[in-house]
Amino acid sequence: MSVEASGVRMKKQFCAVFLALAFLSTGACPPFAAAQVADTGAGAGAGTSTSADAGGASGLSAGQVAGIAIPSAMVLYGALSLASGGVRKFDYQMRGEILEDGQMWHTTGDDYIQFAPAAAAYLLKFAGAQSRDSLLDMTLMYGLSNAVQASIVTGVKGLAHRERPDGSNYNSFPSGHTATAFVAAEFLHQEYGYKSVWIDVAGYGVAAWVGAARVYKNRHWLSDVVAGAGVGILTTKGVYWAYPRLKMKWFGKHEHGEVVQIVPALEYNGGGADVAFVCRF
User: What is the helix (H) or strand (E) element at residue 266, kind and residue range?
Assistant: First the structure.
């Protein structure tokens, strides 16, 4: 087999493995689908988060374990590249083959497509498709997930001080674009993954394309995007786990399971207006 054919095969294998690992980390792929649907099915009808209720179960399902272990392994792989000669060597090998084959990409699509899975979630919501959470809750969790991943990525970039493959600066590790794309993909999975496995395939496929684009544009090393993907997935899963628990702790819970909401209300009284707080159950 020629060196060129070997290089092409290796890149195809990388793309396939990268997408497969990212997809498996959702816990949506058999044999993990049953546990995921069980956690989301009840909430889908009510439009409220069910993560906190699921937390009451004893132990973790195989899908939940995989959902944490696989992205954690992706982050670990990236971290090892900072110290391991073997992992770092593969970074250089991948970049060398791309440059040798003249397959560098010249596109700005990744700057926008990184948000596509999240945009799809909102399109589904506005089209009337039932999400797992309310519009407010899903928006808050998406925003928090991005805030957490951005803080992590920015902090680690400063600590790692890795030079980009194109030599433009020392903010290479991990990939922020990839982390953002996988936050969006996991967000789409959390809200609509219970409806169809193909929603996950589409969301994570787009995110994987963004990661590949960062490598093929010579903006990131392979280990940068693998770590970025892991960070994006884990932070979103973490927010979806913590948010409903914090919400119940801060706002309380009705005995029938309905969250208590305290909202301001404007009341007109004669010639003036008063602001009152109304408690809704």
Answer: strand 261-269
Tokens of 13: 């294998």
- Contacts of residue 204, defined as CB under 8 A and 6 or more positions apart, other chains included, come to 19, 22, 23, 26, 117, 182, 185, 189
**According to the model, what pLDDT value does residue 66 have?**
77
Longest dimension (CA), the chain: 89
C-alpha 172/C-alpha 163 separation (Å) is 6
* Residues in the chain with pLDDT values less than 50: 1, 28-46, 50-58, 254-260, 262-263, 273, 275, 277-279, 281
Q: Phi and psi for 279 in degrees, rounded to 5?
A: -100, 120
Residue among 117, 114, 97 nearest 12 (CA):
97
Instruction: Return d(Cα 267, Cα 31) in angstroms, integer.
Output: 55
Q: Tell me, what's the pLDDT at 152?
A: 97
Bridge partners (DSSP) of residue 259 are 253
DSSP state, residue 196? -
Query: Of 73, 123, 109, 125, nearest to 233 (Cα)?
Result: 73
With b meaning 16 or more CB within 10 Å and e meaning fewer, what string describes 102-131?
Answer: eeeeeeeebeebbbbbbebbbebbeeeeeb
Residue 18's CB is within 10 A of a number of other CB atoms, namely 21
C-beta of residue 281 within 8 angstroms of C-beta of residue 252? no
